[in-house]
Specification:
The chain is mostly helical. It is built from six helices and no strands. The protein is 84% helix and 0% strand. The chain starts with a helix and ends in a 7-residue tail after the last helix.
Amino acid sequence: MDALRQDVLYMGDLVTEHLQYGLDSLRAKDPELANSVIIADNEINEMYLDLEQAFIDLIALQQPVASDLRFVVASFKILTDLERIGDLAVNLAQYALAAERDLFPEVDIQKIGTVTVEMLTDALRAYERELPELSRAIATRDDELDEMCELASTIVVRDLMEAQEDTAADETGPTMQDISRMLLTIRDLERVGDHAVNIAARSLYMVEDDDELLF
């Protein structure tokens, strides 16, 4: 089980790295970096399938009970969240390939992204070191992230309404594709935060048999 924990943490580090690369590709409009994130998703998917089988084998062969069983179940669920965060990192990279310019200066995507990366990093640390209070703190911080995402979405929708009302708007303004892509970017970062909370919730359950964050 110690080896499997290290494997989960390795996958977590890899996913965190790809998430940051996805954000970097958005900031820099770097197609090479964006494509590297997209291509690397195959490695994450293969790692997920290998570890999934390893946990199934552990349950079948060793039949863990009590705290060991909670560890296995929590770790198995955490793998799923990590795989989905990897998919969201790919989304960011794809948005970077489609984006040619920054059209929403009031929306600080990088600040939102920094919060999500920090939440994911802390969630993995809570899992590694079995820190229940850190797990609870991540859930609290998710409220801050939700507020940031809600404000950002409101700004984008406001710009959409203003553009529709301004019949004389020139071609330099945001298009419907720009607006849709920005809303999807905000949504995906919010989902990363949700997955980080899931990881923290599973860690809390693993350590204290406490399901307060699972619902």
